[in-house]
Amino acid sequence: MSKAYKTSEPSLPEQATTEISKGSWPSQEKEQTVRGLLASLAEPEPSEALIDLAYIAGAFGVKGWVRISPFSADADALHEVQEWFIAPPQGAHARGVPWLTSHLHVRVEQLKPQSDGLIAKFEGVDDRDVAHALRGATIALPRSAFPALPEGEFYWVDLIGLEVRNRQGIRLGQVEKLFSNGPQSVLVVQGEVQGKPKEHLIPFVGVYVDTVDLSDRQITVDWQPDY
């Protein structure tokens, strides 16, 4: 049976731009209410680095729920943690979001699967206008908040940057990122063969992955340099 492995991309995918809902912004008379609520949830960015797990794609319904699009399988951690950090949208995603200018600390009242993502209800967010003002924002957690995994399972974020060698001790490169092809995760390993750049796409399953040593930051695989 293949091993199960679980990461998080560090930034909002480019394609997310077109996925964010295009509803109207809060009416002028409600602007102060929106600003006041967001200010009440604001707090300084935590000292521990945050791992981006998903983004808010827009409002859902009229009672303050939001639609959430995960970045990767690491977003599974959101199901086990009731307090999240929400970061302001960056770059192009910040356009038209004047009220969200600092990190928010929110408590999750409810979280449910919906289509290919999630929907969530935050404590104190009971209005569609406020939920809509959060669109494009990033949902993140400190690594220390991630739930422990069973032995033999890993969060992708812990695998990025690890050195990859084969059974013969030949260095294949370093894990740049991972992606899912549906049934399994795939390591994207950047290395060199005879002085030329070489990318290895190694399925992250027991057939190919022998060991993962996080303390030594190394993965051993059954893979050849010319694969």
UniProtKB/TrEMBL annotation:
ATP-binding is among the record's keywords: no
Region annotation Disordered: where it falls in the sequence: 1-29
RimM N-terminal domain residues: 53-144
Signal peptide annotation: none
Top-level taxon: Bacteria
Annotated Ribosome maturation factor RimM PRC barrel domain residues: 156-226
One matching Pfam family: PRC_RimM
Gene Ontology annotations of biological process type: ribosomal small subunit biogenesis; rRNA processing
Listed SUPFAM superfamilies: PRC-barrel domain, Translation proteins
Domain text: The PRC barrel domain binds ribosomal protein uS19.
Quaternary structure note: Binds ribosomal protein uS19.
Protein name as catalogued: Ribosome maturation factor RimM
Native source species: Allofranklinella schreckenbergeri
